[in-house]
Amino acid sequence: MLISPILVDYFGNFIRVGLLMPALLRDKQATLASWRTEWKYALIVGGISPISYVLVLYAMQSAPLSHVAPAREVSMLFAALIGGHLLGEGARLPRICGALCIGAGVFALGNF
């Protein structure tokens, strides 16, 4: 029996809220201060993250898992770019090598 990916994500949110609530209640002042300064980023991540998760779940329903799972790791390419270039983190050469390996793996799995 297949369950809708939207329902999986929806009910997963209840679990996440339950697990995060103790940390929120432990230090309300720090949480509120963080919300005041980071609310824009929270809205962006809160909107994009569930969409990407549901899209991956839908892709796993319609395509072979051996194609979907590695393609999902393409997000690591963006993390390498953002961390290395925009955030000024070091070790660019290993990041580029790792990103090339991920891209090669996704290409190989898609063509074989």
UniProtKB/TrEMBL annotation:
Signal peptide: none annotated. It holds the Pfam family EamA. GO terms for cellular component: membrane. Residues 12-108 form the EamA domain. This is EamA family transporter. It comes from Undibacterium piscinae. The lineage of its organism: Bacteria, Pseudomonadati, Pseudomonadota, Betaproteobacteria, Burkholderiales.
